[in-house]
Amino acid sequence: MLVVSLAPAVDAAKYASALGAETLMDVTWLGHGCFRLRGRNAAVVTDPYPPAIGLKLQRLDADLMTISHPHENHNYVQAVREAYEIRGPGEYEVAGVAVIGVPTYHDAEKGAKHGRNTVYLIEIDDIRVCHLGDLGHSLDDAEAETLSSADVLLVPVGGRTTINATQAAEVVRQLEPRYVVPMHYAIPGLKLQLDPIDRFLKEMGLAAGEPLPKLSVQRSSGDYETKLVVLEPRAEPKP
What we know:
Layout: E1 4-6, H1 12-15, E2 23-29, E3 35-38, E4 43-46, E5 55-56, E6 60-61, E7 64-66, E8 80-81, E9 84-86, E10 90-94, E11 97-105, E12 116-124, E13 127-131, H2 141-147, E14 152-156, H3 165-175, E15 179-183, H4 198-204, E16 215-218, E17 226-228, E18 236-237
Parallel strand pairs: 1-17, 4-7, 6-8, 7-9, 13-14, 14-15, 15-17
Antiparallel strand pairs: 2-3, 2-16, 3-4, 5-18, 10-11, 11-12, 12-13
Helix pairs in contact: 3-4
């Protein structure tokens, strides 16, 4: 049985510094589907977006970037300096980072409406992060089995063109990660029409806590309860 708790806001000070002695990875949300995953020796950026969506994304440094699908709001590679680009299913290893791309769809009609989507399982320093991209359907058993080793799940919850809040909660129950980080929902400045995070929190049976600036992930000590971590979008609304 999956037990989910909300990461307490009192942890925020702990996340404010650089990688600590016990921390293996920092996860920072840059808004929409874009994250920076920073390990001890490598960094990954996911789904960089253009200023046209209403958010200002600073130029980023990374060893590699993952692109879940070619739509411009997830494919603004100019925002990342000289990073190796991963675009699609397969197995990759770059700068000590192992990546598995799992083929999925952007809708529930096998891509007929919005095309294909790649879900990425990214391993840095023994921490596995699953970025669902713009997943548009429930996971089948084979997909769930491949992704079930994730420590951190980055899940779209804003619906409209991706899974909705109910489906997102079901994916959490399927994969049972250590941490769940919502993404791809309505935030100040974003010009895209997405649902707010509240619907997902209601599906999870939780109230919103104070957002954290980043998630610092340590090595698993064994048994755990899945924690929901709401992150601050580290991007400013575009003037």
